[in-house]
Design a protein that fits this description.
- The protein has 348 residues and is of the alpha/beta class.
- The chain has two domains: 133 residues, Rossmann fold (3-Layer(aba) Sandwich), CATH 3.40.50.720; 194 residues, 2-Layer Sandwich (Dihydrodipicolinate Reductase, domain 2), CATH 3.30.360.
- Helices cover 32% and strands 23% of the residues.
- It has ten helices and 15 strands.
- The strands form two sheets. The protein has a nine-stranded mixed sheet. A six-stranded parallel sheet has the order 3-2-1-4-5-6, sandwiched between helices.
- Strand 1, helix 1 and strand 2 form a beta-alpha-beta unit.
- Helix 4 runs parallel beside helix 5 and helix 7 crosses helix 10.
- It is globular and about 60 Å long.
- The N and C termini lie far apart (46 Å).
Length: 348
């Protein structure tokens, strides 16, 4: 095995604790050396061999560290990623990559100039439900796709205290948080839209940040609807697809986040497998015959992201999540904000 990649993690908040630390710690190609933790959050108990850093400079100055994971509050992504690239470190940054397209373009140019890897943690490309939806579309099981609807809802009818995600500031709110995932998935399937029409709102009592959105992405041949809300106690389908030959309906949320949240490591044959009760319903015509049946969900696998980062850094493989793609997500978010403010469709 080639030399492992030494990693510094810039935060042990939710994304660090639930996603990055366990994914890196369970991957033999990486060594998680330092975690930035200004106040104790339990990383030492979980990872006793990891060093605790109290300032970001400690990650930048450590000559052994090759890769820094920037998983800090969204508005800090640009400055911290830029500092890491200038220090000669490869960078994985949480979504959204930056707050503006101009910042994203600057990071891309800098990474290219420094000959360093810059990628964005769009882990939900490897959700089992999304992989299954992609298969249904690629196989043309619904004929010509007419409607694609994606909903990612949660029920949180209170204002969470002591978190930057509830503070009114650039980069906060559901559009940057959950919207970055839904938009990225849509762009993977259909490319950059011609237009964006958005309704963004605050629906929880006393909310300072947007906690609801309805986006309509304009494509020539398919209607794409993306929705998310923090006030959905009884969720509907995660995905709804309609085509000229039939429909596909998928309930449930990929189980990987819940498993990681419970402290399970992403290993073993059963990792990412979904309960059978959440299998999607396919109702269509295939080879001249009517088919109405539940189909198996492809197991999700977030490990693919960091496996790819390793082969890109060590072998020069193709990057699966390219910064150009992350930049397109920001362009759609900016267009959605403009559309909501002007109450009109914005063309890209």
């Amino acid at each position: 095995m080639e030399k492992v990649i030494i990693v510094g993690l810039a935060s042990y908040g939710m994304s660090g604790k639930v996603f990055h630390a366990p994914l890196l710690a369970s991957n033999p190609n990486f060594c998680l050396k330092k975690i930035l933790e200004r106040s104790p959050k339990g990383s030492k108990e979980r990872y006793p061999d990891v060093e605790i850093a109290t300032d970001y400079g400690s990650l930048l100055e450590d000559k052994e560290i090759e890769l820094i994971v920037v998983n800090t509050p969204d508005r800090t992504h640009f400055e911290l990623s830029k500092s890491a690239l200038l220090a000669g470190k490869h960078v994985v940054v949480e979504k959204p990559v930056t707050m503006t397209t101009s910042e994203g373009e600057e990071l891309m140019k800098l990474a290219k100039k420094q000959n360093l890897v810059l990628s964005i943690f769009q882990n939900r490309r490897w959700d089992g439900d999304f992989l299954t939806v992609k298969k249904v579309i690629d196989k043309k099981w619904l004929g010509r796709l007419v409607v694609f609807e994606s909903n990612f809802d949660r029920y949180r009818n209170f204002i969470q205290e002591h978190t930057w995600k509830e503070e009114e500031n650039k980069g906060t709110g559901i559009l940057y948080n959950l919207g970055s995932h839904l938009i990225d998935q849509a762009l993977v399937l259909f490319g950059t839209p011609e237009s964006v029409t958005a309704d963004i709102d605050k629906v929880r009592t006393g909310s300072s940040v947007a906690d609801y959105f309805d986006l309509r992405l304009g494509y020539e041949s398919v209607k794409v609807i993306l929705r998310a809300s923090y006030l959905v106690r009884e969720p509907g389908p995660r995905f709804t697809l309609h085509g000229t030959e039939g429909s596909f309906i998928k309930f449930g949320i990929d189980p990987q986040e819940q498993a990681l949240n419970e402290g399970r490591l992403p290993v073993g044959e059963d990792w990412g497998k979904e309960e059978e009760k959440f299998r999607g319903l396919l109702n269509t015509n295939l080879n001249g015959k009517h088919v109405r049946d539940n189909i198996d969900t492809i197991p999700g696998n977030y490990n693919i992201f960091y496996d790819n980062i390793y082969t890109v850094i060590r072998d020069g493989s193709e990057l699966l999540v390219k910064p150009e793609e992350a930049l397109n997500v920001i362009k759609v978010i900016e267009a959605a904000i403009e559309s909501n403010q002007k109450q009109q469709t914005v063309f890209l």
